């Protein structure tokens, strides 16, 4: 009987009230049970008791890495600008004064716009969260810290639109991503400069590729074929393959006779094409997020069933255009609504 009585015994847990303090307003809160995450009913601040300060062992290594990337990218841009001017302008001025002056002006505009936007995006502030009162009840009003969280790394409040970057060691307002190539975060303060840098860089690379190909064709040594193209015969597919092979071998042989200016033009052409492809993909991705009214991080946090308002007005607002201009552009969301009706 004793054994059966022991088996019928159960352990019951009694929930006790848990007292804690809100970091936002300093008021003491009584929770029905231990809750790792709770929201203050007065100031609206969110407290996560499991969130602790994270140790960032590789902070200085990341900063050194970013600065090295910035120096490499800046050196590449100066190499493209200097090499392009040295290889292209003498040939253009030899063909005509107007062409030389025109392309000198275009190169100066593109170079200044690319370098200036790069410097602004790289060395400018990415965007700091607004300074707000916190910690004491009289200074913090009702709903004053709605959905704010506490950043233990910065030891200050973090707004819902902010994100802490472990590479920079600070919280960034409207953070899009941390870009090692500019050695800085892309946030509310420099996001526009970053997009303008991408647009200017893509345009500059397209111009460099075109001018390198054009000037290279002017100074390219004459092609010598082992067998005249007119004497080639065979089936259509075989004839096309043999013709392409002869042209490729002739180009390869003539490339060995290129001067130093011609070799620089070849490098600028292939380098500009490869860089342009990568920057174009990044620019398209960034403009797509702006079109949806999001950043990259907010896109990752978006629920699959969340309705996204895609509108050209988002792009105009991003670049600071007046709203009166945006009313003439089509709105995808409005057109979809009219179609549903």
TrEMBL record:
Organism (species): Linum tenue
Reactions that this protein is recorded to catalyse: L-cysteinyl-[protein] + hexadecanoyl-CoA = S-hexadecanoyl-L-cysteinyl-[protein] + CoA
Enzyme nomenclature, EC number: 2.3.1.225
Keyword ATP-binding annotated: no
Subcellular location as annotated: Endomembrane system
InterPro entries (UniProt xref): Palmitoyltrfase_DHHC, PFA4/ZDH16/20/ERF2-like
Ranges annotated as spanning the membrane: 68-93, 105-126, 194-219, 265-284
GO molecular function term, any single one: protein-cysteine S-palmitoyltransferase activity
Pfam families: DHHC
Full protein name: S-acyltransferase
Family: Belongs to the DHHC palmitoyltransferase family.
GO cellular component, one term: endomembrane system
Residue ranges constituting the Palmitoyltransferase DHHC domain according to the UniProt record: 147-298
Superkingdom, taxonomy of origin: Eukaryota
Membrane topology: Multi-pass membrane protein
């Amino acid at each position: 009987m004793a054994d059966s009585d022991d088996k019928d015994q159960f352990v019951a847990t009694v929930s006790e009230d848990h007292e804690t303090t809100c970091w936002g307003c300093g008021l003491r809160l009584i929770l029905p049970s231990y809750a790792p995450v709770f929201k203050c009913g007065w100031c609206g601040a969110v407290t996560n008791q499991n969130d602790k300060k994270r140790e960032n062992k590789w902070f200085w290594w990341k900063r050194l890495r970013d600065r090295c990337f910035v120096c490499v990218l800046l050196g590449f841009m100066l190499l493209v600008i200097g090499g392009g001017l040295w290889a292209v302008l003498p040939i253009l001025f030899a063909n005509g004064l107007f062409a030389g002056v025109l392309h000198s002006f275009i190169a100066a505009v593109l170079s200044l716009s690319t370098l200036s936007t790069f410097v602004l995006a790289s060395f400018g502030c990415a965007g700091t969260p607004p300074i707000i009162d916190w910690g004491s009840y009289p200074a913090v009003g009702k709903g004053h810290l709605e959905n704010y969280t506490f950043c233990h790394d910065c030891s200050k409040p973090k707004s819902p639109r902010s994100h802490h970057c472990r590479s920079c060691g600070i919280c960034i307002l409207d953070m899009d991503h941390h870009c090692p190539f500019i050695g800085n975060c892309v946030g509310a303060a420099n996001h526009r400069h970053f997009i303008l840098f991408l647009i200017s860089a893509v345009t500059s690379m397209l111009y460099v590729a075109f001018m390198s190909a054009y000037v290279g064709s002017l100074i390219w040594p004459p092609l010598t074929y082992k067998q005249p193209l007119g004497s080639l015969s065979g089936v259509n597919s075989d004839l096309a393959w043999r013709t392409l092979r002869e042209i490729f071998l002739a180009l390869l042989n003539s490339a060995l006779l290129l001067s130093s200016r011609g070799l620089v033009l070849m490098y600028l052409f292939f380098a500009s094409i490869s860089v342009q492809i990568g920057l174009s993909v990044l620019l398209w991705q960034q403009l797509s997020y702006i079109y949806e009214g999001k950043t990259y991080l907010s896109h990752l946090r978006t629920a699959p069933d969340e309705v996204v308002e895609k509108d050209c007005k988002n792009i105009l607002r991003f670049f600071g255009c007046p709203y009166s201009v945006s009313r003439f552009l089509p709105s995808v969301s409005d057109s979809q609504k009219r179609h549903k009706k």
